[in-house]
């Protein structure tokens, strides 16, 4: 069949299409009308919402973008959900290696610029807490059959309060669902549950069954892809602290010391990739999670064991540049480089996992194990050569001693030491060294030193660089001044090297070296010192620093400016005398200054040094650019203006003179200004002026100019959204964009400035930046740390800021977790995970009484926030934390363990918390408004303290404490607003201060033999239960039934004799008793005849009706009973039927279950 | 528990206040030994003790131990609280001695600073800064770092020796972090301002000072604007005195300034002349800030965000004090500066400092 295509219409011929015709009478209104305005509005609103939700508070991302540290991927889940299987599958997918045993973090290269560190998190609260603080991505494994379990919930809650990392849910064991419909249903249910926990639309992966001990390749591939494109937002805490997840650890303590004292403090090196902000160059304090705070003794940057292809490529580029230059300089290239690779090859899929058994080699803390396969058989004939060698090694018939005695042949073995950890280290370093060789330009010194001292190469390498820098400098010096001896460079470096060798043993500072060399150099050769090196050498006094730094200048100036030098010395003298504390600068004497700036005595020299510079620094009025005559006139006018107000008659002559002088001077000035103008003109009209320059040169100039402009930063205030920005780089439409641009620019500036520094300077200023692989050495770690080390538990090092080393009281807003069963009690120990640390402390819960005072609460409120004050290491306000009552596995019940969550609001050295105190007293003597009170205080001193305090009776009569009585100690006089009764009780309401107990107990779980059994201080209730102590009960505190006997008041009886004597006013008015009988009392009522009959009749009628009613009722009851019986019968029948049905059902279902059970048990076995 | 012998030790009374202030900012304990141990009057001076007392009153939990001879002190810093208080300064040092360092703490406190200082507003000792120097020199620099709403009011002038001055210092902005500043071009100063003041002497003294200095500055062709500030009656303190402060200012608000106070038997003309020449000298030997302001800049750059801030200074400004200051900053804050020669003019140096990411922890949230 033939296809009927639209015929081609050429554009040129017919240029009046139908559209145009449509628009002939204005626009086609229908086309532009809104069809559904409501819907449109909704859509617009929604899109705005979506856009708005994307915005976050702009935050600087401190991770370097050129070589970022590996992404930490934590695999979390309850036991048996398939964490290990998942890691194995992922590793297999990414590196094509199969791991037998997973220990510690595993770093793999996953893409051109991305590395991943996988770490499995066991079912231990401590590990979960530590990992929640550092993980970038969490793969949350969920058993599809059970849904979210308690551990998962706990982890999510912990993670949420330590800056939620990205969470990917992975549902496993989905192959156990028999029917598709239930699978679908449970998937959906799980998804929604997961969404409520994480966020709406969170990604949940579904992994079906296990094939060959791995998850299906397709599913893993998808997961990998998902991970590889994932982006991460910086989290506040991690953006302010350096941290490291250790992937290797070695004990560097001298074996002898250990032998002498097995419990001695250890020197331990911890390796890993740095994350977060740069680690300080020195004196960094670090918190080892689960061990405590320690000072870093030494940091070494090591070559990356797992470099990204991108990084390697960059290194190669640098190398190539170098070689190019070498060739240009006429030197022979040192070596050829390898080809650049374009795709991630198998070779580049590096895996680095020192704690696991990569490639069958397992590095333990004191040995290296080589896996020779599962079925170990010596007689196995078909073995590889290497394997054979290893097996042969084991096949030793005699001991070393025996062999030693034998004599010959041992020589061969004496070289090869037993494989111990130290040796391994060296080996590794040698390996690294060979890596390093391809990277940097090295000399022969490297190898030697590495062998002799076992120092890592990177440091030495730095040193070398430094050396070469110095040499370069020297070269420049030579070139410039021609004063330096030719062989100096060599000599210098030799000296330096000698020193290195010496000092390495005594572990001296390299600074000493400078000083030594400096001293050696001092007499013979003047060098142009780099101020940056001199600045911080503690051995060199600032005066010397300045002298050395200015050394060249002095020499040059020596002949002609003696004054200046004098001046210089003068200054120094002054400074030597007063070791002053002032920041106000001192000036040379007036004469010197006058000479410099005085017009008349201005020799050329002076002019050049003083006045000309001054002119350069001042922005003068434009009139100075005009011609001489005008200028003079102007000056004259100005003078008039200036001095119009004050007439100095005396000095008029002088002034005239001065003016003349000024004119002369001005001529000088004009020359200067002309020149200056020219200069400016040059810069302004560069294109025209520089016409003689070639275009390229011009371009270069322009580029340089532009670059400079770009790097210029206007002051903050001047810029409103970057309006004045020269390049318009930071210009933005919204505040948000503006902020982001500003941050980007600052980062750019940082990078540029760092690049200008030499590596070691950069290291000092910047520190060890994130992404570098470092070895951090500690010298005083407890031996338990290494003895009980278990690679299954993550080892996290968190850098501490200086404030975090201080201790104090923190006030926090806290809430009992709603899933935690009990409310929390004041002063009961609570384990907090705050900052890097986990520690136990005694919080006091408070509430604020309308902001007048902080009142102590005995218990946290049921559902509301309250305040808590506790002692511990300070962290910045706004840090969130999580609290637990128990974290050890032994005392864990099935209950939810996260007991409280909160946020630090305020830190202080002390805090005012009060609790109510009611003092009770009783009156023992009452005057009109005055009463003496007893039993409230025990002595007069106490009373004195409360003089003037408000008191109150139970009935509400207010009063005041006046003064202590002298006689019964502690009794006092008080006045009231009204007369009180003897039966009144007097209250004094006061507030009693509560002190926060200084209890801080770090969770040192990593020092224990069993890492997940750290217990700490027990709760009060727990202690009572354990020790079987009864809860103390104050008898007064128990609630009893209040018995209030009716108070009876006897009538007032006044004896007659007294009554008679009473004055009229006080006479008690009484009525006389009545003597006559009343009318009613006199008559008795008797029922009459008619009346009696009526009543009788009514009574009879009532009796009959009652009887009738009763009969009817009994009949009704009978009927009802019969009905009940009927119903019961029907019910019984129904039940029987039900029973039968159930029986049938369970007979069927039970069979199914048993099959299922068998299946699951099978799975567990594999 | 916390202080495991990580006390930083210094020797001598150099940079006494700086060290204490840095200690407070960083939270590290310091120990200063050998304070004037070789002097005839060993130990702390009264003004230094007064400074310590002031620190104690604006902080909570600070712990000061002064040895029996006064030659050794141990300072364990607490938390900066601030608040309202009055401080009586001893007559051996002017108020400026206290204010110039206290202002560094002000933006990082828990409550707003509201302190009335009583004492000398100026001193004729050349070492100590007068209140005008602080007001016109340091506060604008603080504003550059993002500390706004900071003010210094001279309620009463008090000349030496008897004083009687009163200065009200107020800081209303409590900030979390300082801004990173970048000032890398050599500024040109466009205007010279000044304040000539006198207390309990004839107002003509002020005019004489202004005249002299104008005459000298005329040749520079700059706009000159010197204010006469004559104090009378109660507010003029207890002693007669006069002084002048000159400020060169550029359009961006950077200032270079210098001041002097009249000594006994000194003519106002002499004083003014000397000060003017000193200002000219300072201008020729400065980048965008004078020597007086460098320390504040260095400290604030060191405790800034973890970015590189830059500021241009003159080579002559790299003197001993500068180096001592940098070393102290390094020792306490662990921040090193990097000096780089300016590409355009090799008389200038750009100081690069990477902040240590300090954030104010005293401030309460919500």
TrEMBL record, chain A:
GO terms for biological process: endonucleolytic cleavage of tricistronic rRNA transcript (SSU-rRNA, 5.8S rRNA, LSU-rRNA); maturation of SSU-rRNA from tricistronic rRNA transcript (SSU-rRNA, 5.8S rRNA, LSU-rRNA). It comes from the Eukaryota. It is found in: Nucleus, Nucleolus. Residues 69-233 form the Bms1-type G domain. Gene3D superfamilies: P-loop containing nucleotide triphosphate hydrolases (3.40.50.300). SUPFAM superfamilies: P-loop containing nucleoside triphosphate hydrolases. Residues 552-567, 631-695 have a biased composition (Acidic residues). It catalyses: GTP + H2O = GDP + phosphate + H(+). Residues 1-49, 551-695, 1133-1166 are annotated as: Disordered. Belongs to the TRAFAC class translation factor GTPase superfamily. Bms1-like GTPase family. BMS1 subfamily. This is Bms1-type G domain-containing protein. It comes from Candida verbasci.
TrEMBL record, chain B:
Its main location: nucleus. Keywords: Nucleus, Ribosome biogenesis. It comes from the Eukaryota. GO terms for molecular function: RNA endonuclease activity. GO terms for biological process: endonucleolytic cleavage of tricistronic rRNA transcript (SSU-rRNA, 5.8S rRNA, LSU-rRNA). Belongs to the RNA 3'-terminal cyclase family. Type 2 subfamily. This is RNA 3'-terminal phosphate cyclase-like protein.
């Amino acid at each position: 069949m033939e296809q009927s295509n639209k015929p081609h219409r050429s554009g040129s011929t017919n240029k009046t299409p139908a559209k145009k015709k449509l628009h002939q009478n204005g626009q086609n209104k229908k086309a532009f009308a809104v069809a559904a305005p409501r819907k449109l509005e909704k859509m617009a609103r929604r899109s705005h919402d979506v856009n708005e939700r994307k915005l976050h508070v702009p935050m600087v991302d401190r991770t370097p973008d050129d070589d970022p540290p590996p992404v930490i991927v934590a695999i979390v889940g309850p036991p048996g959900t398939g964490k290990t299987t998942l890691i194995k599958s992922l590793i297999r997918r990414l590196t094509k290696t199969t791991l037998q045993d997973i220990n510690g973090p595993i770093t793999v290269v996953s893409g051109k610029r991305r590395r991943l560190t996988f770490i499995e998190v066991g079912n231990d609260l401590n590990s979960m807490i530590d990992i929640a603080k550092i993980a970038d991505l969490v793969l949350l494994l969920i058993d599809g059959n059970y849904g979210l379990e308690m551990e998962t919930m706990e982890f999510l809650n912990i993670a949420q309060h330590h800056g939620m990392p990205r969470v990917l849910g992975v549902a496993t064991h989905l192959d156990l669902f028999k029917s598709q419909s239930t699978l679908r249903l449970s998937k959906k249910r799980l998804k929604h549950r997961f969404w409520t926990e994480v966020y709406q639309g969170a990604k949940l992966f579904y992994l079906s069954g296990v094939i060959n001990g791995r998850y299906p390749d397709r599913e893993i591939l998808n997961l990998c892809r998902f991970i590889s494109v994932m982006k991460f937002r910086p989290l506040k805490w991690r953006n302010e602290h350096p941290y490291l997840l250790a992937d290797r650890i070695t004990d560097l303590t001298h074996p002898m010391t250990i032998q002498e004292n097995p419990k001695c403090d250890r020197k331990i090196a911890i390796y890993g990739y740095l994350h977060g902000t740069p680690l300080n160059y020195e004196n960094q304090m670090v918190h080892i999670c689960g061990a405590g705070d320690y000072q870093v003794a030494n940091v070494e940057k090591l070559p990356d064991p797992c470099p990204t292809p991108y990084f390697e490529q960059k290194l190669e580029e640098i190398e190539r540049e170098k070689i190019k230059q070498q060739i240009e300089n006429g030197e022979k290239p040192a070596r050829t480089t390898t080809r650049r690779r374009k795709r991630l090859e198998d070779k580049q899929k590096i895996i680095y996992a020192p704690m696991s058994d990569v490639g069958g080699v397992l590095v333990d803390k004191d040995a290296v194990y080589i896996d020779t396969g599962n079925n170990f058989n010596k007689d196995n004939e078909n073995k590889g050569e290497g394997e054979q060698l290893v097996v042969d090694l084991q096949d030793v018939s005699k001991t070393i001693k025996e062999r030693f005695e034998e004599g010959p042949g041992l020589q061969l073995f004496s070289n090869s030491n037993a494989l111990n950890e130290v040796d391994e280290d060296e080996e590794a370093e040698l390996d690294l060294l060979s890596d390093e060789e391809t990277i940097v330009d090295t000399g022969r010194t490297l190898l030697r030193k590495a062998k002799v001292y076992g120092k890592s190469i990177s440091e030495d390498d730095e040193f070398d660089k430094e050396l070469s820098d110095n040499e370069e400098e020297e070269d420049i010096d030579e070139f410039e001044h021609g004063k330096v001896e030719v062989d100096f460079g060599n000599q210098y470096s030799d000296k330096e090297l000698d020193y290195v060798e010496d000092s390495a043993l005594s572990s001296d500072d390299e600074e000493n070296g400078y000083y030594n060399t400096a001293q050696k150099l001092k007499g013979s050769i003047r060098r142009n010192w780099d101020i940056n090196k001199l600045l911080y050498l503690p051995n060199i006094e600032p005066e010397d620093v300045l002298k050395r730094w200015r050394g060249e200048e002095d020499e040059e100036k020596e002949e002609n400016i003696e004054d200046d030098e004098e001046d210089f010395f003068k200054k120094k003298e002054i400074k030597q005398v007063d070791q002053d504390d002032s920041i106000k600068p001192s000036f040379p004497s007036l004469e010197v200054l006058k000479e410099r700036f005085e017009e008349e005595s201005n020799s050329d020299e002076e002019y050049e040094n003083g006045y000309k510079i001054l002119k350069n620094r001042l922005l003068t009025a434009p009139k100075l650019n005009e011609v001489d005559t005008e200028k003079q006139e102007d000056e004259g006018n100005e003078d008039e203006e200036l001095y119009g107000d004050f007439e100095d008659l005396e000095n008029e002559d002088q002034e005239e003179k001065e003016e003349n002088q000024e004119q002369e001077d001005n001529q000088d000035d004009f020359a200067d200004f002309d020149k200056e103008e020219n200069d400016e003109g040059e810069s302004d009209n560069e294109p025209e002026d520089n016409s003689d320059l070639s275009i390229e040169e011009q371009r270069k100039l322009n580029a340089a100019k532009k670059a400079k402009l770009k790097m210029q930063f206007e002051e903050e205030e001047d810029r409103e959204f970057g309006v004045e920005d020269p390049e318009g780089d930071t210009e933005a439409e919204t505040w948000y964009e503006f902020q982001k641009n500003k941050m980007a620019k600052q980062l750019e500036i940082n990078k540029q400035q760092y690049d200008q520094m030499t590596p070691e300077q950069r290291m000092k200023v910047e520190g060890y930046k994130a992404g570098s692989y470092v070895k951090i050495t500690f010298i005083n770690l407890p031996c338990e740390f290494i003895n009980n080390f278990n690679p299954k538990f993550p080892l996290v090092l968190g850098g501490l800021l200086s404030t975090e080393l201080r201790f104090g009281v923190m006030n926090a807003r806290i809430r009992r977790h709603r899933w935690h069963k009990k409310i929390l009690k004041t002063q009961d120990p609570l384990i907090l995970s705050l900052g890097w640390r986990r520690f136990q402390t005694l919080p006091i819960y408070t509430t604020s009484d309308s902001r007048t005072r902080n009142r102590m609460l005995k218990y946290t409120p049921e559902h509301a926030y309250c305040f808590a004050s506790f002692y511990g290491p300070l962290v910045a306000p706004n840090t969130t934390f999580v609290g637990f009552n128990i974290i050890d596995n032994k005392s864990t019940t099935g209950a939810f363990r996260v007991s409280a969550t909160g946020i630090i609001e305020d830190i202080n050295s002390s805090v005012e918390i009060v609790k109510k105190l009611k003092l009770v007293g009783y009156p023992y003597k009452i005057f009109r408004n005055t009463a003496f009170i007893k039993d409230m205080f025990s002595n007069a001193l106490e009373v004195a303290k409360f003089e003037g305090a408000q008191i109150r009776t139970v009935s509400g009569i207010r009063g005041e404490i006046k003064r202590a009585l002298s006689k019964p100690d502690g009794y006092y006089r008080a006045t009231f607003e009204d007369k009180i009764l003897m039966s009144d009780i007097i209250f004094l309401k006061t507030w009693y201060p509560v002190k926060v107990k200084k209890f801080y107990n770090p969770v040192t779980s990593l020092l224990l033999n069993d890492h997940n059994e750290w217990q700490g201080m027990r709760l009060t209730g727990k202690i009572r239960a354990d020790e079987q102590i009864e809860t103390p009960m104050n008898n007064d505190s128990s609630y009893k039934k209040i018995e209030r006997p009716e108070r009876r008041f006897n009538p007032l009886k006044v004896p007659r004799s007294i009554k008679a004597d009473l004055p009229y006013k006080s006479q008690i008015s009484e009525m006389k008793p009545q003597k006559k009988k009343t009318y009613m009392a006199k008559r008795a009522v008797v029922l009459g005849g008619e009346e009696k009959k009526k009543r009788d009749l009514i009574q009879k009628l009532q009796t009959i009706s009652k009887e009738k009613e009763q009969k009817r009722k009994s009949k009704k009851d009978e009927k009802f009973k019969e009905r009940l019986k009927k119903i019961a019968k029907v019910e019984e029948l129904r039940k029987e039927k039900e029973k039968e049905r159930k029986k049938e059902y369970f007979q069927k279902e039970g069979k199914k279950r048993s099959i299922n059970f068998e299946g699951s048990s099978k799975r567990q076995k594999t | 528990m916390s202080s495991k012998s990580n006390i930083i030790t210094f020797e001598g009374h150099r940079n006494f206040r700086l060290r204490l202030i840095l200690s407070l900012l960083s939270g590290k304990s310091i120990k200063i030994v050998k304070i004037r141990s070789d002097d005839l009057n060993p130990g702390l001076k009264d003004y230094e003790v007064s400074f310590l007392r002031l620190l104690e009153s604006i902080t909570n939990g600070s712990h000061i131990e002064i040895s029996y001879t006064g030659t050794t002190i141990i300072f364990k810093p607490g938390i900066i609280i601030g608040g309202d208080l009055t401080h009586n300064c001893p007559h051996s040092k002017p108020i400026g001695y206290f204010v110039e360092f206290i202002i560094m703490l002000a933006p990082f406190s828990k409550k707003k600073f509201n302190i009335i200082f009583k004492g000398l507003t100026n001193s004729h000792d050349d070492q100590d800064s007068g209140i005008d120097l602080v007001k016109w020199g340091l506060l604008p620099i603080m504003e550059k770092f993002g500390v706004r709403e900071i003010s210094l009011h001279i309620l009463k002038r008090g000349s030496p020796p008897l004083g009687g001055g009163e200065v009200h210092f107020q800081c209303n902005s409590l900030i979390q972090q300082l801004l990173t500043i970048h000032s890398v071009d050599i500024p040109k100063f466009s205007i010279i301002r000044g304040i000539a003041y006198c207390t309990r002497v004839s107002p003509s003294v002020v005019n004489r000072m202004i005249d002299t200095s104008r005459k000298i500055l005329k040749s520079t062709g700059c706009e000159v604007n010197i204010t006469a500030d004559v104090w009378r009656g109660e507010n003029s303190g207890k002693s007669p005195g006069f002084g002048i402060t000159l400020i060169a200012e550029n359009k961006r608000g950077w200032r270079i300034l210098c001041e002097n106070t009249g000594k006994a038997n000194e003519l106002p003309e002499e004083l003014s002349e000397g000060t003017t020449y000193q200002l000219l000298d300072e201008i020729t030997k400065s980048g965008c800030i004078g020597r007086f302001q460098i320390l504040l800049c260095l400290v604030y750059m060191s405790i800034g965000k973890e970015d590189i801030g830059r500021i241009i200074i003159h080579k002559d400004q790299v003197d001993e004090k500068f180096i001592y200051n940098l070393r102290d900053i390094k020792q306490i804050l662990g921040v090193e500066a990097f000096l780089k020669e300016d590409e355009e003019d090799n008389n200038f140096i750009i100081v690069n400092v990477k902040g240590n990411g300090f954030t104010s922890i005293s401030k309460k949230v919500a």
